[in-house]
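User: Show me a protein chain along with its predicted structure.
Assistant: Here is one chain, sequence first, then structure tokens.
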Amino acid sequence: MIIETENEYWTWIKNPENLDLNRMLSGYPQNGYGKYLFFSEDRSLLLYLLKTEIEKFGFASSKVCVTPKAIDYVACLYWYDNSRSRELAARNYGCRGPYWKTDEDTLAGVYSK
């Protein structure tokens, strides 16, 4: 089961049935935790990516911006480490990413080039 909520900045996509992972991720910020970032001009592609990863591959929480940042939309798929980069890249959704960003980098305002 997937739940979508939206505010003026983000559409959140979550699987509330994955309670253990949601509890773990709710401890933000934690050392090493973070998110995989994806970029595309096609917001519907990013929504498809996030829903697929949550429904089929065990992720529990994600978001995509409502309006593009510069040219692209950005999607965030939350996880507790960078162990799934190759797996995500192999699925090749046709967007840029995955790029890993830790909670510490987010809080420090560190942005990728």
